[in-house]
Amino acid sequence: MADFRRWFLALAVLALVLGSTVPANAQATGAQVQCQVNTAVQPVLRHEGLTELVGDIVLTCTPIGNATFAAPGALLPQTDISVSLSGTLSTSTAGTSGGLDALLLVDDPGPTVQKVCPTPTNGLLCPDYGTGGLPNEFSNGTNYNTFQGISGGPGTNSITFLGVPVDPPNTTALTYRITNIRIQGPSVPAGTFGLTPVYAFVNASPSTSVTITQATQPIVGFVSQGLNFSAATASPAPTFLQCLSYGTTEVGSVSFTENFQTAFKTQGTGAPVPPATTPTPIQTTPGQIYYTESGLQVAVPGGETGEATSATEFMVVISNIPSGVSIYVDTSDTDTVGGTATLISPAPTGTPMLLVDNTSGAPTTTTAVWEVTAANPFAIDSFTFRIFTSFTGAPGANGGSPQANVIAYAQGGFAPQVAAWTNGGAVPEFVTGLSPASPGQSLFQVSLCQTILLFPYVTDFTGFDTGIAISNTSLDDLPVGASHQTGACSISFYGNGALAPTIGNSGVYTTALDSSVANGVLVPGQTWAFSMSGIDSAYGNPGTTGYAIATCNFQYAHGYSFVSDIGIRNFAAAYLALVIPDAPRAPSPFLCASGFSCLGQAGEQLVH
Predict the structure, then answer these.
(1) Based on the domain organization, do 441 and 457 belong to the same domain?
(2) Where are the alpha helices (DSSP H) in 111-226?
(3) Using CB atoms within 10 A of its CB, is residue 39 exposed (0-12), middle (13-18) or buried (19+)?
(4) Which of 119, 156, 179, 228 has the most CB atoms around its CB within 10 Å?
């Protein structure tokens, strides 16, 4: 607070210096008024917003001493009124005459009698004339009553209105309303209780025409966080297996909740009526509170003030989407207090809306944007949108499809987001930043369908050999409901405390290395059979003795081993391979629930 006071003290000293010099546009003396600065409303502004509309500043002016209204036809004196704010300005140019979106209106002229000074950079070209104290002095169709601001004034964040007419009122007070000033929320530091005031300082030059009284620095708004975003995985959390196919399945949701009642707003313009392509202004009455993203809409040379580009928008970014997966989202939501938000990008063509069908071969990212179409300014609006996925499982060579063990994430925030505000940009727009922190909330991943088989004893030591057979038993259509699955197998041979370097490819033999297996994968009902002697370059010299572990990318693999001496003359033994529970590997089998399957485990288990 002390810093703000020192800042405004410096502005006040500067104002006194400026007021001691009468510029060329001072037209008369003696017609003096004293103005009290008030703020009609003190809105809460979004800290994330770069184009936040502060509350109107109203100067209520009464005559000083014996000052009286000007005679009919007398040229009114003019003054320059400046306003400086404690936040960084983001008020864009409006129209083609060099003026800003910010306006100063004299005596709150209605929409039918607003007469805009067409030369905001030269107030001398917009003279006004006295009417002898008539009450319609600034709504008579002749006098200018609406002035665009220009950048600059006593301070770095200042807007000045040139050539503002001054005439002591006859009965009611003379008023000046300053509106449509926007600031950048991030330029205002966070406050102790989550609310930081934005201060204004108003100055008039020459001070011989207007004296401004500011007992305290008026507050034109409070800055606070505008959005509470959350993302969640669906409950129960989905489990996806690469060997199966899934229809549209919910994987999670994202929620956008306002932190205060007016953080979400509609656009504030009427939809264009064809063949028109621009919205119809609907916010044309000075001083009225509209609770929208737009400000006061007044036609100025070459354009219009106040009009927002859009309503409040939200976006969700879904990243690291595995190849082979489709992503969908809800197209709209209506909350419990009457608010509504609708998908605008991509344009909805169905519900849920397909965002991406990832055929890129690599993880990808997609974005969805919703726009507020109705909001309740007296309650907390909250919108929730579900996220879905679908895919066709196709395990096999090159990892299969979809990509396995890739986690998809979700993040969200206001939209659109830009690195920095620029003149003429979107209204509203927001600072760059998504939550939760990168990589975001995990949504789902696709797990490989696997069966891990243990062959506890294998050998092709001199005079012996081992035959191995692995069957894909997913062809049957028994009542237990096996699904037909295709996948590759690999088997690792261990001997003497390490992988056997002479077998297959450095101790690993795969279906891809066996020319008898088409395309390197086992189809449902197929058996892969081979002998160790046929794949061991050290067979009989002296060969390898140890154990083997096979990994097959389908659920229903079963193995058989036959160990014998050459020619099966004196010794032969056979056994079924043990099915190892899925990772993490445990020395004891996992317990199964009642029924035919082990819940939570993708691999089939034979013995418990």
Answers:
(1) no
(2) none
(3) middle
(4) 179
Same domain for 535 and 517, yes or no, is yes
How far, in Å, CA of 84 to CA of 225, rounded? 23
How far is the C-alpha of 305 from the C-alpha of 101, rounded, in Å?
Answer: 5
Domain count for the chain: 3
Burial 162-173 (b: 16+ CB within 10 A, else e): bbbbbbbbeeee
Whether residues 392 and 525 share a domain: the answer is: no
**Res 583: pLDDT:** 53
Is 602 contained in some domain? Answer: no
User: Between the CA atoms of 140, 142, 144 and 145, what dihedral angle is there, to the nearest 10 degrees?
Assistant: 10
Q: How far is CA 101 from CA 118, 306, 454, 495, in A?
A: 13, 6, 75, 81
Is the pTM higher than 0.85? The answer reads no
Taking CA atoms, 208 is separated from 10, 214, 291, 380, 604, in Å, by: 21, 17, 38, 48, 93
Task: Tell me the mean pLDDT in the region 339-354.
Answer: 96
Backbone angles phi, psi at 21, to 5 degrees: -115, 125
Candidate from 47-51, 77-81, 175-179, 599-603 with smallest mean pLDDT: 599-603
Cα torsion angle, 234, 237, 243, 245, sign: negative
Q: How far apart are CA 545 and CA 528, in angstroms?
A: 21
Is the previous residue joined to 352 through a cis bond, with omega within 30 degrees of 0? Answer: yes
Does residue 185 contact residue 47 with C-beta atoms inside 8 Å? yes
Cβ contact 551:494 at 8 Å: no
Output the CA torsion sign for 468, 472, 476, 477: positive
Would residue 313 count as lying in a domain? yes
Check: CB of residue 319 under 8 Å from CB of residue 409.
Answer: yes
Separation between Cα atoms, residue 46 and residue 54, nearest integer Å: 11
pLDDT digits (tens, 9 = 90+) for 22-38: 333 333 344 489 999 99
Q: How far apart are the first and last CA of the chain?
A: 72
Q: Rounded to an integer, what distance in angstroms lies between the CA atom of residue 465 and that of residue 533?
A: 6
Note whether residue 156 is domain-resident: yes
Other C-beta atoms within 10 Å of 299: how many? Answer: 16
The residues, any chain, with a CB within 8 Å of residue 81's CB and separated by 6 or more, are 59, 104, 160, 161, 164, 176, 178, 202, 203, 204, 210
Is 608 inside a domain boundary? no
What backbone torsions phi and psi does residue 316 show, to the nearest 5 degrees?
-120, 135
Under 8 Å CB-to-CB from 291, ≥6 apart: which residues? 262, 265, 375, 377
> Could you read off the pLDDT of 357-385 as tens digits, one per residue?
999 999 999 999 999 999 999 999 999 99
Task: For residue 309, give every residue at least 6 positions away whose Cβ sits within 8 Å of its Cβ, in sequence order, or none.
Answer: 267, 426, 427, 428
**52, 429 Cβ separation under 8 angstroms:** no
At 542, list the tokens.
């002296």
Q: Tokens 């990243």 identify what position?
A: 319
- Dist CA 578 CA 576 (whole Å): 6
Sign of CA dihedral 471, 475, 480, 482: positive
Residue range of the domain that includes 461: 451-580
In terms of domains, do 174 and 320 share one? Answer: no
